[in-house]
Amino acid sequence: MQEAMIKRAKELLADGIVDRVIGWKKGEFSYDHTPAVFTSAQELDESFVCDDFTSANLSKYLVKETIREGKILAFLKPCDTYSFNQLVKEHRIDRDKVYVIGIPGGPKLDIEKIRARGITGILNVRNENYTLKIETIYGVSEMPFYEAISVKCESCKSKKHVVYDELIGEDGEVLDSNRFDMVEKLENMTSQERYDFWRSELSKCIRCNACRTVCPACTCEKCVFENPDSGIENKAAADSFEENMFHIIRAFHVAGRCTDCGECSRVCPENIPLHLLNRKFIKDINSLYGTYQAGENTTDKAPLNEYKMDDCEASIVHERGAE
Amino acid sequence: MQRIGVFVCHCGTNIAATVDVKAVAEALGHEPGVVISQDYQYMCSESGQNLIKDAVKEHSLTGIVVCSCSPRMHENTFRKAAAAAGLNPYLVEIANIREQCSWIHKEIATATEKAVILGRAAVAKVHLNAPLTAGESPVVKRALVIGGGIAGIQTALDIAEAGFEVDIVEKEPTIGGKMAQIDKTFPTLDCAACILTPKMVECAQNDKITIHSFSEIADVKGFVGNFTVTIKKKARFVDETKCTGCGLCTEKCPMKKVPNEFNMGLDNRTAVYIPFAQAVPKVAAIDPNYCLMLKNGKCGVCSKVCSVGAIDYKQTDKFVEEKYGAIVVATGFNPIKIDKYEEFAYNQSPDVVTSLELERLMNAAGPNGGTLLRPSDKKHPHTIVFVQCVGSRCEDEKGKPYCSKICCMYTAKHAMLIREKYPDTEVYVFYIDVRTPGKNFDEFYRRAVEQYGVHYIKGMVGKVTPKSDGKLDVQAADLLANEQLHIDADMVVLAAAIEPDKSARPLATMLTTQMDTNDFFTEAHPKLRPVESATAGIFLSGACQGPKDIPETVAQASAAAAKAIGLLCKNSITCNPCVASSDELMCNGCSSCEKVCPYGAITYIDKEFRMPDKTTRIRRVASVNPAVCQGCGACTVACPSGAMDLSGFSNSQIMAEVDAICK
Amino acid sequence: MQVNNNNEFQPLIVAFCCNWCSYAGADLSGTNRLNYPTNVKIIRVPCSCRVNPMFILRAFQRGADGVILCGCHPGDCHYTSGNYFTRRRMTLLFSMLDFLGIERDRTRVEWVSAAEGAKFAATMNEFTEAVRKLGPNRRLEDLRCRKQ
Predict the structure, then answer these.
(1) Is A208 in the C-facing interface, judged by CB distances under 8 Å?
(2) Cβ distance of C78 and B596 shorter than 8 Å
(3) Which of A234, B170, B514, B522 is packed most tightly, with the most Cβ within 10 A?
(4) pLDDT value at residue B517
């Protein structure tokens, strides 16, 4: 796969069809690859990588990349194509400046899940027939591949690319992912139990903004939390509005626009299941206003930007599942 | 540094009896930025306003808070006072301590405490108020009248008379509307055609009036003074500019079995037709549902006989776009469908007719040439029963909850005309109430009873049953005599309720005007602004606003015209300055705001920006047309980045109010 | 939140009212002297659709015990469609607050026309009582990111 991608990238560069390539660059270890832009065959040969750890969604980087001159080649996994489409729809990405090659999706691995097994000093991780051989400074450990996959890949919503100029590998289908199971489980708890769950989760937040930085829906020129005219920016006060409401406001801002790519939870250093907030909105939208998948195309109106005369009243929240 | 003046009104004892106004003034005097805080008996009075004006000058105030009655009452009064003293009128905020405080609370301590909090919120808001200037937008000096019945005709004639161009859009092939179908008019019994057709001709001949017949409104954009309307000119398959209205095609057309809607389907017309002899424009139209040529390509007779070559089978719907400063809605009414009233046997017997059908049966240009004959056997009827309120004042879902208003009078008219022409015919009228207010109306009804001997019976008809001898058995109750009646009738006439035309609801959506639950257009104020809609620049004429007879319709039509003329006379209009605007530096160009704007006030432009690194970058940013924006604020919430804000109700202003209340 | 002489909990209620319907409805309940508790403080907005969820969250965060949003009845919006957007936004926001374990009776949307003074007063009486029963709004206060 990686070889085919490098080969095609070199061809497109050589033919002058694209000027740059966005992909992933080898890190110091085999599990810490980062998104990177390549401009030459040499760079591609040296450090381009695509393996079980290249889970980062590249779509958001294209917002900045397409402001620049010239065309860029982007390798997008199925889930990343939804984010890409959504950003094209919101006029954040200039579609004409991107050459999209669809590549097969995960499941991708999450190094934290391996570390959670108490495995430390990891040097290298190899996948041998879906058993992971983990080389550490203390020797080699093993664990089953599927027990180390990223949370976002556990409930993969689609193997289908919703946009591409060409494909490497086969296109898949939209999956029935059971991705709302956890949301449903929480919904079935009592109000107090839900509150306890979220208080314990959200209190872990160190306000590092990693979720916001990685989120493909958070591409605002200036975030409301940094805008003095929004009335909510309040860095100085210790007992601030932001501290209470950051995650609720962020989830509301991306409601109807979030493609459920799961990057927020993937990057959270405190492992807060932030994607559940987004999924709650998606689940509500689907059940109240009809199934809607952000980024599925570039034409459908976002559910919060339209209405039906016979929409349910807000009191439905109070009526359903009264305790 | 802000210099804010607070003025607390006693409103006589209206406020002062429940709120300790001195304590409120004292407490608000300590709020940040407040340099003067006073109370006065009547702030809205001349001397109260002078107090404010003097304080503005004396203390060089930068903002004013008036703690008084609802801003819906006196906001404008105090804004004008501020402006007179040289302060921008939008630097005034009202704390509503009467309707929201003194009038609903009884305990002085808590009411005073609440009044202070409301005042504090207003002070917090006024700190962030910005001076606003109302913009101006030009007025297109042309009016559109939607509907070409008597209401639309009268409005158009009046507007044209004042010297303005006016277009009539009528969905039928001719103007004239319901009045053209009516035989005689109450209370004078003059013939409808005799008074209507000259007005129709006047419309056709007036060079200020353009008639778009057989046309509909496809789209409305814009705002008061500057509407852009797309008119769909439906294909009539006859070239309007060539047709002379000679009628030869209608004589030769072999398809003669088309129900004639002008005669309520009581006789037939041809597939190519002119609705009636006095039609304006007198131009034929081909009915594509029946024309043999259009249906299966075999015929072409009309094309052959037309000496001017006006027939065009290939004609398609055309769309024309026009600009208007004012729009008058005159979409009128229709009788309801009465199929659901099975008890009256309307579907079982042709001798049960609606009142509008009776109009045609009695009309000289109608199916029987003006002789009243039973539809079933074309014999002269000797007993006729009229049933009032069929579907009017109806509590169940079959009918309408309102009184249709015109039925009592036209039924009296029908009864009188029948008795006049055919004295051997007995006429019975079953009614709930007889409602005949109006000049010479009650006298008219009494003449029907006293002079013409019409039998008025208070009570409802329970059932009409067709009998084997061709008569109709009418079962009814006489409530005054308290007895059950059976009448052998030759004909039964049903006074069907009237309802707004079906085209009104989608039109209201396009015009962004309000409607009531019965689909009648809602006037801006039921008493004081009866011919204006709440949407600026849209006026209401005739029965589209509620059931009306002809004199009322004409009066309202002229009133709507006067309002439209008042608008068209202006060269420009002042806009509401409390409109949305986008901070271009923060705008993502995502189009969310554009999608929720009900007025189409937001467009996107590509704009060049100097970036901090000295490069230039072209960005897509939202741009609000302040003349179109009405200031609802839907866009401000749709905007994910908070770039969109609303003057007068900005994010920070509302946040400041929230903070002040929750302190 | 405040406590009166009888030690009865006095909830702070913030009511956002649209200028054209509900604010006029509130005025009408004043004109008709229809009593509702002093706990209710009204903020005037041009349309219910002007109410940003952030205003509601801010009110809660600053100590409000209940927030109610009043607008024109569906179909009667002065701006034709504003309240339809409000309805979707608030349904989702309230559902999210409920999902986070915030008591669902602290939030409400109510359609009150300019003619419904009695409904306005009745709604405010009822809502205030419902919030009073819930007691002070502690949960949202404690739902926060860790202080650094």
Answers:
(1) no
(2) no
(3) B170
(4) 77
Contact C30 B598 (CB under 8 A): no
C14 contacts B651? CB cut-off 8 A: no
Q: C-chain residues within 8 Å CB-CB of A248?
A: 57, 96-97, 100
Q: Is A221 in contact with B587 (Cβ distance < 8 A)?
A: yes
- Scanning the structure block, which residue is given the tokens 């054209």? C20
- What single-letter DSSP state applies at residue B639? -
Residues of C in contact with B600 (CB under 8 A): none
Q: Are B228 and B181 in contact (CB under 8 A)?
A: no
Residue A170: predicted pLDDT: 85
Q: What Å distances lie between residue B22 and B38, B201, B661, CA to CA? A: 8, 70, 20
- What does the buried/exposed string (b/e) look like for C44-80 if buried means 16 or more CB atoms within 10 Å of the residue's CB? bbbbbbbbbbbbbbbbbbbbbbbbbbbbbebebbbbb
Within A221-261, residue ranges assigned H as helices are 241-254
Q: Which of A67, A90, A232 sits opposite B590 (nearest CB)?
A: A90
CA distance B578 to B129: 11
Q: Which residue of C has its CA nearest to A251?
A: C96
- Report the C-alpha gap between B168 and B330 in whole angstroms: 10
DSSP, res C72: P
All residues of chain C having their beta carbon less than 8 Å from the beta carbon of residue A200 are none
Per-residue tokens: C12: 């702070």
The span from the CA of B507 to the CA of B523, in Å, is: 15
Q: What is the largest CA-CA distance in chain A?
A: 65
**Helix, strand, or coil (residue B457):** strand
DSSP code, position B342: G
Q: Min CA distance, C55 vs chain A (Å)?
A: 9
Domain locations along chain C: 2-145
Substitution target in B590, B602, B611, B613 with the highest count of A β-carbons within 10 Å is B590
Does B105 contact chain C (CB < 8 Å)? yes
Residues A204 and A270 sit within 8 Å (Cβ to Cβ): yes
Q: Give this complex's ipTM.
A: 0.95
Domain C2-145 -> CATH class: alpha beta
pLDDT in tens, A240-290: 778 888 899 999 999 999 999 999 999 999 999 999 999 999 999 999 999
* CA distance linking residue A247 with residue B46, whole number of Å: 53
Mean pLDDT by 10 residues, chain B (663 residues): 95 95 96 96 95 96 96 92 96 96 94 96 96 90 97 98 98 96 94 95 96 95 89 96 94 95 94 95 95 93 94 96 97 94 93 96 92 93 96 90 96 96 96 94 96 95 94 95 95 97 89 81 82 89 96 97 97 90 92 88 90 86 88 94 93 93 89
Residue C105: list chain A partners with CB under 8 A.
Answer: 318
- Residue B634 forms contact with C (CB below 8 Å): yes
Contact yes or no for C101 and A195 at CB 8 A: yes
Strand bridging mode B142-146 / B165-169: parallel
Provide residues of A within 8 Å CB-CB of chain B: 67, 90-92, 219-224, 227, 229-232, 253-254, 257, 301-302, 304-306
Say what the alpha-carbon torsion angle A201, A202, A203, A205 is, to the nearest 10 degrees. 110
**Residue B71, preceding bond cis, omega within 30 degrees?**
no
Contact with chain C for residue A272, Cβ under 8 A:
no
Report residue A323's pLDDT band, with 50, 70 and 90 as the boundaries: very low
Q: CB-based burial of residue B202 (10 Å sphere; 0-12 exposed, 13-18 middle, 19+ buried)?
A: middle
Contacts 24+ apart (CB under 8 A), B263-271: B263/B360, B263/B366, B263/B367, B264/B181, B264/B354, B264/B356, B264/B357, B264/B360, B266/B357, B266/B360, B266/B361, B266/B366, B266/B367, B266/B375, B267/B367
Measured distance CA(C125)–CA(C106) in Å, rounded: 14
User: Within an 8 Å CB–CB cutoff, is residue C138 touching chain B?
Assistant: no
